Structure formats: structure tokens, C-alpha cells
From TrEMBL:
It comes from the Bacteria. InterPro entries: HTH-like_dom, Integrase_cat-core, RNaseH-like_sf, RNaseH_sf, Transpos_IS3, Transposase_IS3/IS150/IS904. PANTHER family: TRANSPOSASE INSF FOR INSERTION SEQUENCE IS3B-RELATED, TRANSPOSASE INSO FOR INSERTION SEQUENCE ELEMENT IS911B-RELATED. The lineage of its organism: Bacteria, Pseudomonadati, Bacteroidota, Cytophagia, Cytophagales. Residues 1-40, 150-174 are annotated as: Disordered. GO terms for molecular function: nucleic acid binding. Residues 173-336 form the Integrase catalytic domain. This is IS3 family transposase.
Length: 344
């Protein structure tokens, strides 16, 4: 009887245990088989780069969980979701500030970096930081021009003529236009070899180019003609300081007579010290980078036309960090309005 009960109990336990074992065994191979089949389906694809893996996950995310796909492709889920968000942002229309940055960059012909672009879009009402502007330029493959050094020298200070003292040493920066003008001569390369010679005069306060002339040679009247044009247009008061280096063109009798006729005082940099005329040198660096950009002028007439356009742009539109990111003309207008509000 005991044996019967034992046998009966044994028979009662086996049916209850078998379905559990059989069910578990039956389910596990099925899941394993599905996973194995999916792994095999990935075997011939073998996406090598991360983006290809992200795209594969995105295509199959409705069939298999993202977590499992990431595990099989050895991709971090966070990396996949970050890629997906970036792609969604790219597919959306660019925000207004981003379009403004690209427009400003193209309008100024690669001449503006992040600082000037920020000032430009701020003036349009977009408050954007430099890091966002930098990322926008990189995303659109835009890169600003970089200033280059220039080799030829135009100063001939071994002429033995009397030189003027440096009246700017130890003096504060001019606070109004037509107090100090600075001038210099530079060489511009010409196609087929040779040079063109450009002389200019700038207002030391506003950075505005007030007079210029370009020739195929460098006669004594090159700087005189540029100065004469500036004097006719600006009509400066008596006592204007006209500063230059010690080149022979600036010690010529004709040039000094022109200064005397208008009550201007001559000032010269110390010999061999380019920093005394740094403002003029800085202008040459900008002009050669932004206008030439490694190129050459076909001839004199083409150079006159291009220089005329660039100097008009420089005076009217180009923002200067030293002028609180205003153009020279706008800076002079600002000074005029301030003097009217606060008369001396």
C-alpha cells in the first residue's frame, strides 16, 4: 500500500513537473533561435562606421528593441539617441539667427570672423554668442580669411633730408576726427610681374581713409596728391598733425609746402620703428588680405576700380573692434551726435 501510495505520488508529481520543464525548455530555444537568426542576418552587413550602425538601428527599431539592436551592433544607446536628435535638428529649418550669420558672412566676402559677425547679427536683433557662430560656420564649411604678412619695403630713410619729430609719442589717442592723420605707401602685386604703389591717409580717430592715390611708379607727388584730395574733401582745422614714416616722399619740398599752406604740422616715426605707424600698417594688412587674398591686379585701371570699391566698403560698412564694432563713417556720426548732446 505504501508502495502504491509512493508510486501514485510519483505519478502525480511527474505530470505537474514535466509541463514546467518542457515549457521553459520550449520557450528558451525559440527566443535563442530568434536572436541567433537576427545575429546571422547582421553578419553579412557588418556596418563599419558608427553612422551606418545608427541608420541600421533606425530602420529596424520598430521590429526589434533599440536596446537589443545597440547590444548586437556594439553601440551605446545614448550615442544612437544623440545622433537621432542631431539628424532631426538638421532636418528642421535653420533658425533665423543662423540664417543671419550665413548671410552676413557671405555679404562681407569672408572678411568677418566671429567677433564682427556677432556684432552684425546683434544689430539685426539676434542675440547669439561667438561659440554658436563658430559652430554655424563650421557646419556650413565657411572659413574667414586670415591676414598675411607682406615683404616689400617702401621706406627710403637714407635720403639725408631733415626729418620731423614724432609728435605722437606720449600723446593720448585723438578724441575727434581731423586732429591726426596717418599715412604710408605700400606695394600691390601686378599680373605678369611688377608692382603698383598705393599711398593713403587715414584719420587716426575714426580709422577712415580720407585720401588715397595709386600709381605704377613711386614719384614724390604720389603722397602729395593723396593728401591734397583729403584736404579738399575734409577741410581740417589749422593745427592738424600729419604723421608718416621718414620716406623721401614725405621730406620732399612739394609735400612740405602743401602742409604749410594748410597750417598742418608734420610728424614722423622714429627711424626703423614700424610700431610708430602701426595704424597704417594694420590697414595695409587688412586691405591685402581682404581685397587681394593672394591674387594680383591685372593693371592700373583695374586696381583703381577695385580699390575705390573696397575703400568705400571699408569706410561705410566694415566694423572695427577699436570703434566698438562700428564702421568709420558710423563712428564719426556717433561722435557728432554725442558732441551735439554734450556740447563743450
Amino acid at each position: 500500500m505504501a508502495a502504491g501510495r509512493s508510486g501514485s505520488g510519483s505519478r502525480q508529481r511527474r505530470p505537474s513537473a514535466r509541463p514546467r520543464v518542457a515549457g521553459a525548455a520550449g520557450r528558451e530555444p525559440a527566443a535563442g533561435a530568434r536572436g541567433g537568426r537576427f545575429k546571422k542576418s547582421l553578419g553579412h552587413l557588418q556596418p563599419r562606421d558608427a553612422v551606418s550602425r545608427y541608420r541600421f538601428i533606425d530602420r529596424h527599431r520598430t521590429q526589434v528593441s533599440v536596446r537589443r539592436l545597440c547590444l548586437l551592433l556594439q553601440v551605446a544607446p545614448s550615442s544612437y539617441y544623440a545622433w537621432r536628435q542631431r539628424r532631426q535638428r538638421r532636418q528642421q529649418p535653420a533658425p533665423a539667427w543662423e540664417r543671419a550669420v550665413v548671410r552676413a558672412f557671405q555679404r562681407h566676402g569672408r572678411r568677418y570672423g566671429t567677433c564682427r559677425l556677432r556684432a552684425e547679427v546683434h544689430a539685426e536683433g539676434h542675440r547669439v554668442g561667438r561659440w554658436r557662430i563658430r559652430r554655424t560656420l563650421a557646419a556650413h564649411g565657411l572659413r574667414a580669411q586670415q591676414p598675411r604678412s607682406f615683404v616689400p619695403r617702401t621706406t627710403d630713410s637714407g635720403h639725408g633730408q631733415r626729418v620731423a619729430p614724432n609728435r605722437l609719442l606720449g600723446q593720448p589717442r585723438p578724441t575727434a576726427p581731423n586732429q591726426v592723420w596717418v599715412g604710408d605707401i605700400t606695394c600691390l602685386p601686378k599680373q605678369g610681374g611688377g608692382w603698383l604703389y598705393l599711398a593713403s591717409w587715414q584719420d587716426a580717430c575714426s580709422r577712415k581713409v580720407v585720401g588715397w592715390d595709386v600709381r605704377e611708379s613711386m614719384p614724390e607727388d604720389l603722397v602729395s596728391e593723396a593728401l591734397r584730395r583729403a584736404l579738399v574733401v575734409r577741410q581740417p582745422p589749422v593745427g592738424l598733425i600729419v604723421h608718416s614714416d621718414q620716406g623721401s616722399q614725405y621730406t620732399a619740398t612739394r609735400f612740405r609746402d602743401l602742409l604749410a599752406d594748410h597750417g598742418a604740422r608734420q610728424s614722423m616715426s622714429r627711424r626703423g620703428n614700424c610700431y610708430d605707424n602701426a595704424q597704417a600698417e594694420s590697414f595695409w594688412s587688412r586691405l591685402k588680405t581682404e581685397l587681394l587674398d593672394g591674387g594680383r591686379f591685372p593693371g592700373l585701371e583695374e586696381a583703381r576700380l577695385e580699390l575705390s570699391h573696397y575703400i568705400a566698403y571699408y569706410n561705410d560698412e566694415r566694423r572695427h573692434s577699436a570703434l566698438a564694432y562700428r564702421s568709420p563713417n558710423r563712428f564719426e556720426t556717433h561722435l557728432q551726435s554725442m558732441s551735439e548732446k554734450c556740447p563743450a
